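Notebook, student rotation project (T.W.).
Task set for the rotation: take a protein with a known small-molecule partner, predict the structure of the complex, and write up what can be learned from the model alone. Partner molecule chosen: 2-acetamido-2-deoxy-beta-D-glucopyranose. Sequence and SMILES entered below by T.W., checked by me.
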Amino acid sequence: MAWPRTSLRLSIALILSLTLIVVSGRTMPKRETLNIVLGEETEETPEPIPTPWPEQFHALMVMNNTNKPELQVVDLWYDWPNGCNLNLIQNQLGKLLHDVEWDNGTSYYYTLGVGDDGGRECCIMHFPVGILRPNWLEGANYLGQSYVDGFLCNVWEKVDFIWYYEDVVTKRPIHWLFFTGMSAHVMTFEVGAVLEDSKWQAPAHCFDKQAEHGTPEQTSLLRPPVASV
Ligand SMILES: *[C@@H]1O[C@H](CO)[C@@H](O)[C@H](O)[C@H]1NC(C)=O
Ligand SMILES: *[C@@H]1O[C@H](CO)[C@@H](O)[C@H](O)[C@H]1NC(C)=O
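Predicted structure of the complex:
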C-alpha cells in the first residue's frame, strides 16, 4: 500500500514548511527593527526608469533577425551634440553598409565599393524626424526584470515598437528587440567615444545626379519608421 509512504512525505513537507515559517518569522522582525532604527521606509520602491543615453558613445553590436536568417555586426556611433548617428553595418559575408543619419532628417546609406561591397551605391533618405534624443525611452512601460544574454536586466516596452533591456547593476543597455524581429546585443559600450569628423562625410558618389533618393520606408536600426517614439 502506498499510504504510509505518502504520509511520510506529507510529514517531511510539513516539517520543512514549519521550519521555513520559523526561520522567516525570526528574520522578519529583525529586518523591520533594522529599518526602523535606520529610519528607512518600508514602502515599495518606485518603478525604475530607463537610463538616458550618454550624449556620445560608441557601441559594437551583434544584430540577429529573429524572423529570417540575417546576422550583422554593427558599429554604432551616437553623437547627440553634433546631431548625428552612424551605423556601420557589416552583413555576414556581404556588404558593409554605411548609414549616416543627421538630425535635420537626411540620411545617407552607402557602400564604398571595397572588397565584397558590391559597388559604390548610395541612397539618400529624408525622414520627418531627426535622430533619437538621449531621453527617447522616456515614458516607456516597465515590464519587470528578466535575464538576457546572462545579464539581469530591467525591461521596458515602448509603443509596441521596441523592447529594451538594461543591466540592473551597470545601467548599460544589453539588448533591444524591434517589432520587426531585428534584435541587438550590445558587445561593447564606450561612453564619451567620438568618431573623427572625416568619417561622417558621405562620399562623392552620393552627390552624383544618379544618386538614388529614397522614401523613408526602410527601417533604420535606430530611427523609428514613424515619428511615434
Ligand atoms: C538568431 O535568432 C534565431 C531565432 O531566434 C536563433 O534561432 C539563432 O540561434 C540566433 N542566432 C544567433 C547567432 O544568435
Ligand atoms: C542635413 O545635414 C547634412 C550634413 O550637414 C547635409 O548633408 C544635408 O544636406 C542636410 N539636409 C538638409 C535637408 O538640410
